[in-house]
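Journal club prep, notes for RB
We'll compare a predicted complex against what the paper describes. Inputs for the FE2/S2 (inorganic) cluster case:
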Amino acid sequence: MGPGRTAAESRLKAALIMSGIAQPLCRLDELEEGRARGFDPLAQGRDSVFALRHRNQVRVYRNRCPHLDVRLEYRKDRFLSADGQLIVCYAHGAQFLPATGECIYGPCLGQTLEALPSCERDGWLLVQMPEGLPLPG
Ligand code: FES
């Protein structure tokens, strides 16, 4: 990546943040099929949201298990099962569908992860963060 592109990306990100409309998470081409990534858009020192690409659809969820209000991953960016087909909460093994966030196995069966509105702009994945909601530590 050359310095010109870096400067342009920085200006775009700054403009989007200043607009208050959405927070940029990453470039869409940095999100691989069957992989998830955690992000800290509020600079809290922990990944409060995560994004994944499943069957070429990008989804963004709040990083909070509906069972006990804790983060899901067991280490950085490890939100998915080994085959990349399910979201897993590593506290008690709950499994969630990537497309909807619905729990299909575990103590929060039938509950769902909180999906966050997201969109694409100029190749960036943007997320609209909920306001006034506590985020898990
Ligand atoms: S905290 Fe997620 S399954 Fe228990």
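Talking point for the session: Helices lie at 3-19.
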